[in-house]
């Protein structure tokens, strides 16, 4: 019978949930090679759990695993839509079912001891048999379940564990998170001895009083157990009572001090790492150790491009270190509890963590929320059970700052019992849930993707709960823009306590030389690349969005103002002791002086001017750049211009004769050669390969761009005037079928070795749409593969995402300028470029000088090819390098989910000028 599949998500046969504990009681890790077969339905081959069943013909599969990542069935991606009919609690008859078997030995000396079988994650539902006897059913994919298997085990002999895992169960209705559907036993399976008189559960409460510096420690544990914290002088003291400790070092994300503790009975010792901290809502603010909490957070899913939901421990540690290096101080475990080991690492490395229940029913919204489990008493048991499992397992972690009831599950009668269940276990931690804007059951007001003006309005309101953006700055594709804008709001309004970027990682699945997304596995219903919306690529290499985030949230702020640079301590809990300020003075990008000073020991929030070095810097463009470092890591950077460059001379003097002007050859108004270097263009161009923020959202600007024909401009030379000192080409640039146009006047002047183009553009007609980009495109030979520039860098930057770009001299290659967004789109812009060179291996090539600056992109494919590509392997290098020299770009914004660029980052169709000098350089 498969009634358990439709029993409104209730697990069966489990023992009560308890804390994840590091115990010295014996245990066996059952990870490894298991026998596996995949059935098309839930009930095929009903006999496989018998101890004597012959599984010799089955395949082997690693456990933990997501079986579609190992060639069984296919991954499938939907965001909101359920991939099966909404017919709760029923699931389709076609229900991929993975039968798993594993033979294991149990030591003879386990005889007579109580043993639990523990599953950390089974997606979506596992029916468990030990030596042929059914012991129960898991429900709640990302939740821990334990079964008492004492009666079924054979110590001193071989035992058989058989687990039937169904992709779909009633619980699938509760797990409509925006991610791949990936069934499997994807977290550890262990056997654990529970010694008589042992410590089934322990709950450590370690509070910190910021006024007195005292810690208070109480450990709830079975009576008679003894507690030791040697560093604090506690040896074998009583549990279940308060111990007041004079002068403990508090735990904060910036100072994650942990004290090793142990709790012992005669039969078992549990090791704990205590962090003393108090989280409380005080006067409308969420505080940690008495200070306002400021979440510089990310939403983290568990994802691996080759393994699916299985993330190896070394990968997790490295990704948390990457977050720390980019000044992320908080994680929301969207939208389910993570592998328990994550929280150990967050305690150790220092993050505030919102642990979210494994609960989302977003797809019911498409049904007008009809039959939503949140408001249906038939689901109450399952929902309360999920909440309990969430809180019980992770309650000992200082990093856990709040519990979240779930994500996007609407409102209804079950929220109350869920919240009560959480508070009954842990009255000390605040509750979060974004789905109910009345905040009836929560301690913070949480919203996702509010635009900046709404955040300001909420911030300015006189009363209310602490305000948190559980999601904002949707990091899909190129972006997000607006990070600085949001940070300023969080710094302006105390009540706006920061938020969590959506999201940490692109969930692209590796397929040969590229990453796949929704629809690539033949899913009949899918949401395409909406699953590719992270700050890091699927292989966890940082995207420019993460670099930007790192600059925006760098704790040592070096702000340029009229008087020079001001250093500000943006840490919440620590002073600047140990921070070194390394400075350089550069002239035209070349370093002329450098040194270092200790930062003043400013407390949190304090600022102080930085004394500027007195350096003679000649006549070029001089910059002071200061980088703050702490223990080898960059914790801040800032720049101030000490001296502006004199305007560059525009080249002139030569007259136009026989299609030539100085070193330049023209044909039909186009430049075709420069001092022996073949090139084509430059021509006015407005198109960029739309970024995801141009394409998605309620009113995609890319639709308006296409409707306006900006991707198919035609050029008509109106006039060529070679009579004066300049060669002047007037062009009317317009898309077919409209009378909207841009009049472009290209005024060329030259001297012996360079030409200067002064482009003036005047829109005519109705231009309600902003422009994607505005500038010129030209093509140069592909051998010009080396790039050097003096301008913003080293990475990609756009008008509303340029906090990380410092003015300097940088070297790269055309290939190195590309950002491999999983779905190809506009990328790689280098901003405020004063001068650039594209050269071949001999050093010959093209130099471009700005008057004063231009935006630069260069790539081995055309913008049309970039626009047409759907995956990175569609981008095939051609014979040319396509160079764009732009006056400007439309901002990035975060409209794929959230607001468009701020008004000042719009590129409106207005008259503009772009002036550049081009020179062929010799080796
Ligand atoms: C939110 C949701 C996330 C994700 C995001 C869009 O509504 O909570 O899970 O779907 O939108 O990428």
Compact overview of the structure:
This protein has 923 residues and is mostly beta strands. The protein folds into five domains: 3-194, Jelly Rolls (Sandwich), CATH 2.60.120.260; 203-280, Immunoglobulins (Immunoglobulin-like); 295-302 and 330-552, TIM Barrel (Alpha-Beta Barrel), CATH 3.20.20.80; 556-643, Immunoglobulins (Immunoglobulin-like), CATH 2.60.40.10; 656-921, Beta-galactosidase, Chain A, domain 5 (Distorted Sandwich), CATH 2.70.98.
Keywords:
Jelly Rolls, eight-stranded parallel beta sheet, Glyco_hydro_2_N, TIM Barrel, single chain, mainly beta, Immunoglobulin-like, 5 domains, binds beta-D-galactopyranose, hydrolase, 923 residues
Bound molecules: beta-D-galactopyranose
Estimated radius of gyration: 31 Å
CATH topology of the largest domain: Beta-galactosidase, Chain A, domain 5
* H/I helix tally: 10
Q: Please tell me the overall pLDDT.
A: 96
> Helix proportion of residues, in percent?
10-25%
Number of strands: 58
N- and C-termini, Cα separation:
80 Å
This entry's quaternary arrangement is: single chain
How much of the residues is beta strand, in percent? 35-45%
Q: Give the tally of structural domains.
A: 5
Shape category: globular
- The secondary-structure class comes to mainly beta
CATH hierarchy: architecture of the largest domain: Distorted Sandwich
What does this entry look like structurally?
There is one protein chain. With 923 residues, the chain is mainly beta. The protein folds into five domains: 3-194, Jelly Rolls (Sandwich), CATH 2.60.120.260; 203-280, Immunoglobulin-like; 295-302 and 330-552, Alpha-Beta Barrel (TIM Barrel), CATH 3.20.20; 556-643, Immunoglobulin-like (Sandwich); 656-921, Beta-galactosidase, Chain A, domain 5 (Distorted Sandwich), CATH 2.70.98. It is 10% helix and 38% strand. The protein has ten helices and 58 strands. It has a 16-stranded antiparallel β-sheet that branches. Helix 1 runs parallel beside helix 2 and helix 5 packs parallel to helix 6 (483-492). The model has no long low-confidence stretch (mean pLDDT 96).
């Amino acid at each position: 019978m498969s009634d358990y599949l439709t029993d409104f998500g209730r697990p069966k046969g489990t023992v009560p949930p308890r804390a994840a504990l590091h115990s010295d009681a014996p245990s066996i890790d059952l990870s490894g090679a298991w026998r596996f077969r995949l059935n098309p339905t839930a009930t095929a081959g009903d006999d496989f759990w018998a101890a004597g069943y012959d599984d010799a013909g089955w395949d082997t599969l690693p456990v933990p695993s997501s079986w579609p990542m190992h060639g069984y069935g296919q991954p499938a991606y939907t965001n909101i839509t359920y991939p099966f009919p909404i017919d709760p609690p029923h699931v389709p008859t076609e229900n991929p079912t993975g039968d798993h078997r594993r033979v294991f030995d149990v030591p003879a000396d386990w005889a007579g001891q109580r043993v639990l079988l523990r599953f950390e994650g089974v997606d979506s539902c596992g029916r468990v048999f030990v030596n042929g006897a059914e012991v129960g059913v898991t429900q709640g994919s990302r939740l821990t379940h334990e079964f008492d298997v004492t009666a079924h085990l054979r110590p001193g002999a071989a035992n058989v564990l058989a687990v039937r895992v169904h992709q779909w169960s009633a619980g699938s209705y509760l797990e409509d998170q925006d991610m791949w559907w990936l069934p499997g036993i994807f977290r550890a399976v262990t056997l654990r001895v529970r010694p008589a008189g042992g410590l089934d559960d322990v709950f450590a409460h370690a509070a910190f009083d910021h006024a007195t510096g005292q810690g208070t420690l109480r450990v709830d544990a079975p009576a008679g157990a003894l507690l030791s914290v040697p560093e604090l002088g506690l040896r074998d003291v009583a549990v279940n009572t308060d111990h007041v400790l004079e002068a403990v070092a508090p735990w904060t994300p910036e100072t994650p001090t942990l004290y090793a503790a142990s709790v012992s009975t005669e039969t078992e010792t549990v090791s704990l790492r205590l962090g003393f901290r108090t989280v409380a809502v005080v006067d409308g603010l969420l505080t940690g150790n008495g200070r306002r909490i400021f979440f510089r957070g990310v939403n983290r899913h568990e994802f691996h491009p080759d393994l699916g939901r299985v993330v190896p421990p070394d990968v997790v540690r490295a990704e948390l270190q990457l977050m720390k290096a980019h000044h992320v101080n908080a994680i929301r475990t969207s939208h389910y509890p993570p592998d328990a080991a994550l929280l150990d690492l967050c305690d150790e490395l220092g993050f505030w963590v919102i642990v979210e229940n494994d609960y989302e029913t977003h797809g019911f919204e498409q049904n007008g929320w009809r039959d939503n489990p949140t408001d249906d008493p038939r689901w109450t048991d399952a929902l309360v059970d999920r909440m309990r499992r969430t809180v019980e397992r992770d309650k000992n972690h200082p990093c856990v700052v709040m519990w979240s009831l779930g994500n996007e599950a609407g409102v209804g009668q079950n929220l109350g019992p869920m919240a009560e269940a959480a508070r009954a276990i842990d009255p000390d931690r605040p509750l979060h849930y974004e789905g109910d804007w009345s905040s009836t059951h929560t301690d913070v007001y949480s919203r996702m993707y509010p635009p900046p003006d709404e955040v300001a309005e909420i911030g300015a309101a006189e009363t209310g709960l602490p305000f948190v953006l559980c999601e904002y700055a949707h990091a899909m594709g190129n972006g997000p823009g607006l990070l600085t804008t949001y940070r300023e709001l969080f710094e302006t309004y105390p009540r706006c306590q920061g938020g969590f970027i959506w999201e940490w990682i692109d969930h692209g699945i590796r397929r040969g030389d590229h990453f796949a997304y929704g629809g690539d596995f033949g899913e009949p219903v899918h949401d395409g690349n909406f699953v590719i919306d992270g700050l890091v690529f699927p292989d966890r290499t940082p995207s420019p969005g993460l670099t930007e985030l790192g600059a925006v949230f760098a704790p040592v702020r070096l702000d340029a103002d009229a008087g020079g640079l001001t250093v500000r301590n943006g840490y919440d809990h620590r002073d600047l002791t140990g921070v070194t300020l390394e400075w350089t003075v550069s002239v035209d990008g070349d370093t002329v002086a450098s040194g270092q000073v200790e930062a003043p020991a400013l407390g949190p929030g304090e600022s102080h001017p930085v004394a500027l070095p007195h350096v003679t810097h000649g006549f070029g463009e001089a910059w002071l750049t200061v980088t703050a470092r702490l223990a080898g890591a960059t914790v801040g950077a800032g720049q101030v211009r000490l001296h502006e460059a004199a305007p560059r001379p525009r080249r002139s003097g030569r007259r136009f004769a026989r299609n030539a002007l100085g070193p330049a050859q023209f044909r039909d108004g186009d430049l075709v050669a420069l001092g022996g270097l073949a090139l084509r263009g430059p021509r006015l161009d407005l198109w960029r390969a739309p970024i995801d923020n141009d394409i998605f959202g309620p009113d995609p600007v890319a639709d308006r761009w296409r409707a306006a024909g900006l991707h198919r401009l035609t050029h008509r030379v109106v006039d060529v005037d070679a009579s004066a000192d300049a060669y002047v080409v007037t062009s009317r640039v317009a898309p077919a079928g409209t009378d909207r146009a841009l009049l472009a006047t290209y005024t060329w002047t030259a001297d012996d070795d360079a030409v200067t183009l002064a482009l003036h553009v005047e829109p005519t007609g109705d231009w309600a749409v902003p422009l994607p980009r505005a500038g010129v495109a030209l093509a140069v030979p592909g051998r010009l593969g080396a790039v050097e520039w003096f301008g913003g860098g080293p990475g990609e930057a756009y008008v509303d995402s340029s906090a990380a770009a410092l003015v300097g001299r940088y070297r790269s290659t055309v290939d190195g300028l590309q950002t491999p967004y999983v779905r190809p789109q506009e990328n790689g812009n280098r901003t405020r470029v004063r001068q650039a060179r594209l050269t071949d291996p001999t050093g010959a090539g093209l130099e471009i000088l700005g008057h004063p600056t231009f935006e630069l992109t260069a790539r081995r494919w055309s913008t049309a090819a970039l626009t047409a590509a759907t995956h990175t392997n569609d981008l095939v290098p051609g014979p040319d390098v396509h160079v764009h020299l732009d006056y400007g770009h439309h901002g990035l914004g975060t409209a794929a989910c959230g607001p468009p660029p701020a008004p000042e980052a719009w590129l409106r169709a207005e008259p503009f000028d772009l002036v550049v000098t081009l020179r062929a350089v010799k080796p």
